[in-house]
């Protein structure tokens, strides 16, 4: 794929991700970048409202970190792709970051101390001259650090863009894909950031509680996905006997074939039962599948299987011992399991 094609593919994924998974997983960092900044201009002689400036710095830092990652992925190829357990750990860490920002918005003092916000602006506080002030260092560093940190909080479509950067096997191609992806997410992120910044200043904290609750919900959702990816959640029960009869078969050589369809909205079937200690081949089928569903993850084996948009991929599982082998998409949102008995 040429550079123009890579740019269009990355931008298209970014436009889609901006309104879905990326907005959900990274809004905590965006809110943290503008949180505590009063409305008004960015500084003396400037006509740019401060929320606009803060969001612009955040997006510029996000663009820089993703372009650097894309260049690295294009240079080193699949050797730098993180496994599911590492991604799970990163998502769990991201969930903790979201929770800290939520507690910070609620005025939880330990969270504020952790974020080193002592002396920074707090809603409703004013200096003797009647104007709100924010320490210059806090204004400049915070959006930069948090914008760059978005590279550690990937959503499902970000992983798809990273995969495209890897397959480009080019520094320029990888940088273009990831840069275009961030540019695609920028319009909605900019709108959210400016809206939140002005609303927080106008409502003087009335919106803050609602934002904090939303961030805590996103934190719990992100943590659950991370724990799934890492294989750290206890296995649940339940199988589907009817699906097992239809999607599990044995050929004349005694090899057991387990078929799973990876579709945009999950797996069909998601729960299966198969025989243990029998040579088993997992058959993964796709049909116009996109996004994070094109990466089939097996946490217990710390393995990702990359799938075509349409086609069939076979994975040799050996002769599994009795137990439950869980699987899921790259972002941990859609789980499933095969119980070997």
Automatic annotation (TrEMBL):
Pfam families: DsbD_2. InterPro entries: Cupredoxin, UreH-like_TM_dom. Residues 14-220 form the Urease accessory protein UreH-like transmembrane domain. The keyword ATP-binding does not apply. Keywords: Membrane, Transmembrane, Transmembrane helix. The keyword Transmembrane helix applies. It comes from the Bacteria. The chain crosses the membrane at residues 89-108, 144-165, 171-195, 207-224. This is Urease accessory protein UreH-like transmembrane domain-containing protein. It comes from Actinomadura napierensis. The lineage of its organism: Bacteria, Bacillati, Actinomycetota, Actinomycetes, Streptosporangiales.
